[in-house]
Write a structure and sequence with these properties.
This protein is mostly helical. It folds into 2 domains: 30 residues; 73 residues. Helices cover 83% and strands 0% of the residues.
């Protein structure tokens, strides 16, 4: 019974992803000028991924977690994910602070 529920969930997630991508492509085709901000966002996200991957260190996998089957590449990807989370969280917090401070001085 649980397997069936999981497969239904996967199918629904797949349908949602296809729908989101389809509507996004249609909206970009209708308004190509609006795609400029989306491209900036995607390029910025890719840049954050690349920078955090380059700066992450996977050397602890060979010393600390080697007996658990974790490779250096796996440790580097986990470090990239954590670094990306930290950077995006900091950007979100700084954005909130900027908006609130600018509202304070605009009145």
């Amino acid at each position: 019974m649980i397997d069936t529920g999981i497969y239904i969930t996967y199918a629904l997630i797949g349908i949602c992803v296809v729908g989101i991508l389809g509507f996004s492509i249609v909206n970009i085709a209708k308004n190509p000028g609006g795609a400029k901000s989306a491209v900036f966002g995607i390029v910025g996200l890719i840049l954050v991924f690349v920078l955090t991957y380059v700066t992450s260190d996977g050397t602890d996998a060979t010393t600390v977690y080697a007996d658990e089957g974790i490779t250096e590449a796996t440790s580097k990807r986990v470090g990239m994910g954590l670094g990306t989370f930290y950077v995006l969280t900091a950007v979100a917090i700084l954005s909130i602070i900027y908006v609130e401070v600018s509202r304070l001085f605009s009145k």
